[in-house]
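Hey all, sorry for the wall of text incoming. These are the two entities for the joint prediction.
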Amino acid sequence: NAGVTQTPKFQVLKTGQSMTLQCAQDMNHNSMYWYRQDPGMGLRLIYYSASEGTTDKGEVPNGYNVSRLNKREFSLRLESAAPSQTSVYFCASTWTGGVDGYTFGSGTRLTVV
Amino acid sequence: AQSVTQLGSHVSVSEGALVLLRCNYSSSVPPYLFWYVQYPNQGLQLLLKYTSAATLVKGINGFEAEFKKSETSFHLTKPSAHMSDAAEYFCAVSEPGTYKYIFGTGTRLKVLA
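and here's what came out:
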């Protein structure tokens, strides 16, 4: 089925470990996004890529890096995980301009202990 | 800067009663506005969107929302609640050309039998 695929779905990390969250879309969308969702805080934008070859910081970029590998794939890396990064991470994509709304992946639930 | 406020983090209605979820926005230009629904342990799904066409927008599952510029509001309504409507609902705003959506903090809807 067409959509946004995120891997892994669940992950437990120890403080200081690193990991990469993967996201791929097969809808030929230009723009891709990473959000984190925390109770009572809604969704907050970490990084986004308006088009292939570009990336920009969102509201809460500290502690994260991203790579737009190609038009389909947009990865999020935690270099040295901290407990404050315990969250649910969502990847989303859309056509440039955002008029059509995002398509979201099913999320990655990350716990840092 | 654009922003979104959702009044009421929790709303309870009886089955068959009117559902009203409130969203107010701030934007320096005519915005795009969206409502998303999130069922437990799932990603977000687009319910409906306003992108400067008709001010009354109909979405999936019997939901609709009305864009009121004078009140800077985009409230979500459904005439008769169903048990399956229990979920968390997010309002989002985007300024055309900015590539980013700003999400509200969400409203959890509970439907009472």
